[in-house]
Q: What sequence folds into this?
């Protein structure tokens, strides 16, 4: 029987079927974080249960940590209890913590692959909906709530109904100034917020294949925004090379065996998908959101649509009118960071654009690296100096403005161009108006002080 | 978790699609280590910036302040996986959400907290017929045992839910306990994988 890659990974981790008909799927790794872990720990304590495999569990500190240089537990006072409870309970239960000041602190979805902790063909649980990010190396990530987190801690499995499957073939090639973020925003606008509901997604086609591993993380990161639980890009030699030598990678014979297995990780040629969608990316322009959900997307030169009565609230919240163009609209803040776009390749792209230029007067621009390792790498390459010379603030790693839980937030009515994943009402601060875009588009907005087609700064395009 | 019993109470209409968990449980309230979940439900829509109630929001209208059922649109609970968006609902007193559809993770979180997610979205006429019977004065009754909702005028709306989910909700089954019935199978699987795919079970470089 022909199988999809997702079938193969699912079957390889299938423990059995529970009395209520759910599949028990083994989770190779679990990464918890401080916003939800304390509650799950206290529930475990109340029921007298233990963490079944603390050696497969890691604790990240990302959602509530301050990102100001020199930060500690108390810099964001609202985060202190979360951070300390997570650290203490993790240590008590034998769980490794990626702590503040340590090499591997950062956003869990950035750190896990960077360490080689999550691997191709693996399953990966995180109490966070962007767990799907690790699909970039061909792993299946599962976001979950707090009760499910407790369940995975106690059992190392998740009880799931097998989802349907969707293949999205990204055809053609990308123009200069257009990246994975533009592709995924376009996909979400095409399929809608619930277009992937009940499904897991395999991205395929020449555009996905040509993407760097970092770009594939960006692509997979936003799968949840169209309602799909998880998804991936089949791993290839680019992934294996990217993982080579990472700290938690297998070595020696185990690595040889792993590589032989990983090279079989692909959907069979005649595998059937419940939905099979093809999207041509050839003439795709840089994309940007106009509204208050990630499906409300237009090309940067397009007019804001008339969304009818149902979309009026979004237009009012964003301070926009149908028919206007976003280009030229003044911005107050620019945020470059989050599990979507905060990796070294994103920072290099931004640095190349801002080198020798200045952030426009009146714009507060911030770069928040996705992990402390990304930060160190950027500093080794001198990117921090380029950012600071241009007028960007250079921060420590964390979720920052994306989650709005660490004290970094925009003010009421402020217009923000952000590289993150959610432009919901009030997400980046009560009343804040967020436009999602690529790192290059965010850099262009910072330099010009307005929403700008980045291709103008590249000396070509429209 | 307590077993699900019949829910009887007024049904509040919030007839919008794609309500996300940032709206249900806004992040600004989740910065508190032990927040007041009932108070934070739809916090940034229920309250004006000065903290006073916004009389335009459905749960602030007198007839819906004690609502036990929420009636809403498609893709309810999309976005963040935060379970606080379910805890806020149950703390407020909501025992059943009737929607045209739920986001996957939100629906899972409901089931784990004894909050019954009912989808009437597959049959739009049924959903609309239910909505026309909402007046805020008379109670609806939701029976999971019978898999139906009775409107105040006696009209019956049947809904579907799997036998497994219904059984687990009715008996308030311990989800972790259910899985641990297969603890030996999990251990046997781990032993086998350690032999055939050692990199999955053994992490170097920690």
A:
């Amino acid at each position: 029987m022909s199988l999809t890659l997702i079938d193969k990974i699912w079957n390889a981790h299938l423990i059995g079927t529970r009395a209520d008909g759910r599949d028990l799927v083994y989770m190779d790794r679990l990464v918890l974080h401080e916003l939800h872990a304390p509650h799950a720990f206290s529930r475990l304590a109340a029921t007298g249960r233990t963490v079944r495999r603390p050696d497969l569990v890691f604790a990240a500190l990302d959602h509530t940590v301050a990102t100001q240089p020199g930060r500690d537990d108390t810099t964001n006072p609202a985060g202190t209890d979360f951070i300390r409870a997570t650290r203490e309970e993790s240590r008590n239960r034998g769980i490794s913590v990626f702590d503040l000041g340590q090499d591997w602190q950062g956003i869990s979805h950035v750190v896990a692959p960077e360490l080689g902790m999550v691997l191709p063909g693996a399953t990966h649980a995180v109490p966070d909906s962007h767990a799907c990010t690790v699909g970039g190396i061909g792993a299946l990530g599962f976001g979950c709530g707090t009760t499910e987190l407790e369940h995975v801690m106690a059992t190392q499995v998740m009880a799931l109904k097998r989802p349907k499957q969707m293949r999205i073939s990204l055809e053609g090639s990308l123009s200069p100034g257009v990246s994975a973020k533009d592709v995924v925003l376009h996909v979400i606008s095409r399929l809608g917020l619930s277009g992937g509901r009940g499904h897991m997604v395999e991205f395929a086609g020449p555009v996905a294949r040509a993407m760097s591993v970092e770009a594939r993380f960006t692509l997979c990161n936003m799968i949840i925004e169209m309602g799909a639980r998880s998804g991936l890009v089949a791993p290839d030699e680019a992934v294996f090379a990217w993982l080579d030598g990472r700290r938690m990678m297998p070595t020696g014979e185990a690595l040889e065996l792993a590589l032989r297995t990983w090279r079989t990780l692909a959907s069979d040629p005649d595998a059937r998908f419940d939905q099979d969608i093809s999207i041509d990316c050839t003439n795709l322009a840089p994309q940007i959101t106009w509204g208050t959900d990630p499906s409300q997307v237009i090309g940067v030169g397009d007019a804001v649509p008339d969304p009818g009565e149902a979309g009026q609230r979004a237009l009012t919240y964003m301070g926009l009118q149908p028919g206007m163009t976003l280009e030229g609209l003044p911005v107050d803040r620019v945020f470059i960071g989050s599990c979507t776009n905060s990796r070294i390749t994103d920072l290099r792209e931004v640095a190349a654009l801002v080198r020798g230029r200045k952030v426009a007067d009146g714009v507060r621009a911030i770069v928040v690296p996705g992990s402390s390792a990304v930060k160190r790498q950027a500093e080794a390459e001198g990117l921090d100096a380029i950012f600071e010379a241009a007028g960007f603030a250079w921060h420590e790693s964390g979720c920052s403005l994306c989650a709005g839980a660490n004290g970094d937030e925009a003010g009421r009515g402020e217009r923000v161009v952000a590289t993150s994943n959610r432009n919901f009402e009030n997400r980046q601060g009560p009343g804040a108006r967020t436009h999602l875009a690529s790192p290059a588009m965010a850099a262009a907005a910072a330099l010009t002080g307005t929403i700008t087609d980045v291709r103008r700064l590249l000396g070509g395009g429209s | 978790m307590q077993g699900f019993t019949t829910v009887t109470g007024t049904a509040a209409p919030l007839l919008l699609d794609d309500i996300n968990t940032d709206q249900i449980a806004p992040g600004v309230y989740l910065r508190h280590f032990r927040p007041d979940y009932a108070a934070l439900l739809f916090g940034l829509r229920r309250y004006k910036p000065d903290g006073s109630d916004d009389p335009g929001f459905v749960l602030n209208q007198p007839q819906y302040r004690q609502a036990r059922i929420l009636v809403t649109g498609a893709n309810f609970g999309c976005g963040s996986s935060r379970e606080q968006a379910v805890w806020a609902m149950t703390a407020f007193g909501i025992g059943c959400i009737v929607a045209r559809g739920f986001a996957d993770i939100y629906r899972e979180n409901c089931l784990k907290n004894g909050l019954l997610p009912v989808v009437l979205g597959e049959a739009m006429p049924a959903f609309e017929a239910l909505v026309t019977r909402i007046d805020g004065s008379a109670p609806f009754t939701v029976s999971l045992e019978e898999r139906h909702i009775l409107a105040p005028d006696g009209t019956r709306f049947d809904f579907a839910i799997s036998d497994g989910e219904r059984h687990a909700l009715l008996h308030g089954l311990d989800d972790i306990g259910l899985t641990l019935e297969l603890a030996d199978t999990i251990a046997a699987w781990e032993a086998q994988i350690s032999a055939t795919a050692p990199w999955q079970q053994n992490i170097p470089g920690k």
